[in-house]
Amino acid sequence: MLKEPLRHPADEIKSTKSKHLEGVKLVFGLTGSVSIYRVIDIMRELIRRGADVYVVMSKAATELINPTLIEWATGTKVFTEFKGETGHVALSFEGSSFTVAPASADAIAKIAAGIGDNPVTLTAVNMLGLGKPLILVPTMHEGLWKSPPIVKALEFLTSLGVTVLWPNLVEGRAKFPDAEDVIAAVEAVTLRGKDLRGLNILVTSGPTRERLDSVRYITNSSSGKMGVAIAREAYFRGANVTLIHGPLSVSKPYYTRNIAVESTEEMLEAVLNEVRSRKYDAVIMAAAPSDFRFRTVYKEKIKSDINELQIVLETTPKISAKVREVYKGLLIGFAAETVFNDLNKLIELAQHKLISRGFDYIVANDVSNPEIGFASDYNEVVVVGKNGFKEHIPKSLKEVVARRILDIVRDELAYGKRA
């Protein structure tokens, strides 16, 4: 006989990727949209990060996907109706936030009007009344998305502090965003709210390429994940974000202001143009620009039937030094070092670059460790500041590292040092 109670299959994935959401109760509302199947992967990923996930469904949602499948995916009871129950009250009081995904036009209009005639809209209205974070992920045809009543409803809800993950309009539809975008919105809004509201933040991300000829170039292993994670987190916490990026290996946010470059020189010009033409509260240089370029660049492809090719490399401009000459605001740099797990050495190198490059803070990591850094979902860093600040952020998802870096930005600006 079994002596232990049977575990739900969802328990097997709990906190397997991270523990930073342990103790956080996330409530999801599912409405009638064909994109509803996309939410399952999102909820299970949040469970992998430690969250407890609870779900309410509208009748239209249950006609598209069986609630039993949702219960299997989350390991918790799914509410499809409240027959005299106070489930919406309990969920609202205990839930950390409420995410309506997908959010149909009907649900958006009812929430804006305060109509709670189904479990989703009733829970949403109750959450608003309690001041809990509400996140909407609209999906609908373009005609509905641009319909004046829906536009007005969304404007009203955003004025109340509701977070709307504005859709990417593709092929005449307001498409459901990538899972990474929804997860970033849920985590940022639930854990930090809009604590960066109104700040203007510039982020650089990714590698650069230095061309030899029309098809060949040198670059590095940077994927751009760290910079993109910072840009996403800052945006959902209320900042106005500009992302200057090289060739990325990850999807860039469609909702930030993006400027694509290829070479280190192009990235330098783009950053200088931004800090000269706009007022930025903080510049976060998470990119990994190439340190060298070819002295001679060929317009056409070099023929491969030659016996030998001698090339000369020269150093590229140091972007941070050039930026510091014209930008006097909060400047945060990144440094990728190979110190083979020597934390003291990493701190020493970080302190040297902090001073020599004119940073206010520098974030350093050890790229000799294959489990962190370039192309990995994880990072482990030390943050060093001019004011004697030192902090070791242990191995964490890059989203968690990004959150802590932006906490430092928030605190630095809030306490008047650069207000």
TrEMBL record:
Q: Which InterPro entries match?
A: CoaB-like_sf, CoaBC, DNA/pantothenate-metab_flavo_C, Flavin_trans-like, Flavoprotein
**Annotated ranges, domain DNA/pantothenate metabolism flavoprotein C-terminal:** 196-410
Name assigned to this protein? Coenzyme A biosynthesis bifunctional protein CoaBC
Similarity comment:
In the N-terminal section; belongs to the HFCD (homo-oligomeric flavin containing Cys decarboxylase) superfamily.
Pathway the protein contributes to: Cofactor biosynthesis; coenzyme A biosynthesis
Q: What is its EC number?
A: 4.1.1.36, 6.3.2.5
Region Phosphopantothenoylcysteine decarboxylase: list its residue ranges.
Answer: 1-200
* UniProt GO MF annotations: FMN binding; metal ion binding; phosphopantothenate--cysteine ligase activity; phosphopantothenoylcysteine decarboxylase activity
GO BP terms, alphabetized: coenzyme A biosynthetic process; pantothenate catabolic process
Q: Where is this region: Phosphopantothenate--cysteine ligase?
A: 201-419
Report whether Nucleotide-binding shows up as a keyword of the record.
no
Domain Flavoprotein, residue spans: 25-141
Instruction: Name its co-factor(s).
Output: FMN; Mg(2+)
